[in-house]
Design goal:
The complex is a heterodimer of chains A (221) and B (84).
Chain A (H helix, E strand, L loop, with lengths): L16 H12 L3 H22 L3 H18 L9 H19 L9 H4 L27 H7 L1 H13 L3 H12 L4 H8 L3 H25 L3
Chain B lengths: L3 H12 L5 H13 L1 H17 L9 H16 L8
The chains are: A mainly alpha (221), B mainly alpha (84).
């Protein structure tokens, strides 16, 4: 039985150091098409991340625009040790945290570091197993249900399910699986430990699978 | 011997390729014999792959135009440093 999927290095836009340096140089030189390219590529992901921290789409939009201005202001002092993309996300997240504190809202990854791990109980419903840890309700193969729905609908389901995740899980799974960052990059961007990243990703993927399962099994053939 | 419940608790380390050889061996032993857990592992991988297909909204043209305006303003005020 072949089980594919040991490819931790998925990346939506893999960029070499040389490409990144060229991009930063072009921006510093005032090259408009370089700016438009990077804005088009990162605006959506930034908007998505911003919504983890701020309550409305409008304030997320504002936060993203502020981030772009801070990117320009800080560009000359950007140390090229970090990935450009991570650096931009870090600016956004710092601004978001400042804003959350100002507005007296709770900040993901300050409170959530402890909070996110237990209150919702185990990620997978414990009643799925008997006392010895065997399945009482084993997972059912999805291929039949999947053939009816099609990827587009399934992706839409996943997208909605992501929005319902607790903030910290949402942030991690968004950066890892939607944006294709690797574990190290996510840890640096969010300022969390590797262990924490691992736990949050596990929980997020477990929940997303369970949500898909609920939908796929709700519509029997 | 791993139980099915334990398999679901460590499945992500398997998917991430970050198991030690001993754990990977017991994981493989279990899923080699257990169809339900094989299905489960495949579903977690499938979920991750579907998540990778989630796409972002394109930037609204008005926002892009506004950002470009500010970019020009930044550049015209000296932008990235001396010499520009």
């Amino acid at each position: 039985m072949m089980l594919p999927g040991m490819d931790p290095s998925r990346g939506r836009t893999p960029q070499t150091d040389a490409e990144e340096h060229a991009l930063v140089d072009a921006l510093l030189a005032g090259n408009e098409s370089a700016f438009i390219k990077v804005v088009r590529e990162l605006h959506g992901p930034l908007q998505r991340m911003a919504q983890v921290w701020v309550p409305s789409a409008a304030s997320a939009e504002e936060l993203v625009q502020e981030t772009w201005m801070a990117v320009l202001t800080g560009l000359a002092s950007f140390e090229r040790r970090a990935r450009f993309r991570s650096w931009v996300f870090q600016i956004l997240i710092n601004k978001a945290k400042t804003r959350a504190v100002r507005d007296h809202r709770s900040v993901p990854f300050s409170a959530l570091v402890g909070e996110d791990e237990d209150p919702d109980g185990p990620a997978l419903d414990p009643s799925r197993f008997d006392a010895s840890g065997h399945w009482t309700k084993p997972p059912v193969d999805w291929s039949g249900a999947e053939a009816r729905l099609g990827d587009k609908q399934l992706v839409a389901l996943v997208q909605k399910a992501i929005e319902r995740l607790p903030d910290a899980q949402r942030a991690v799974v968004t950066l890892r699986d939607v944006e294709g960052m690797d574990a190290d990059e996510v840890c640096r961007t969010l300022g969390i430990t590797d262990t924490h990243q691992r736990v949050l990703l596990h929980r997020a993927r477990t929940r997303l699978r369970a949500e898909l399962e609920a939908h796929l099994e709700a519509k029997p053939c | 011997m791993l139980s099915c419940k334990q398999v679901t608790e460590i499945v992500n380390d398997f998917v991430e390729g970050r198991m030690g050889w001993r754990q990977r061996l017991s994981f493989h032993l279990h899923i080699g014999m257990c169809r339900a857990c094989r299905t489960y592992v495949r579903q977690v991988q499938r979920t991750r792959d579907l998540t990778g297909q989630v796409t972002d909204e394109p930037i609204p043209p008005a926002v892009e135009a506004e950002l470009l305006k500010r970019f020009r303003g930044w550049r015209d005020k000296g932008g990235g440093g001396p010499g520009t």
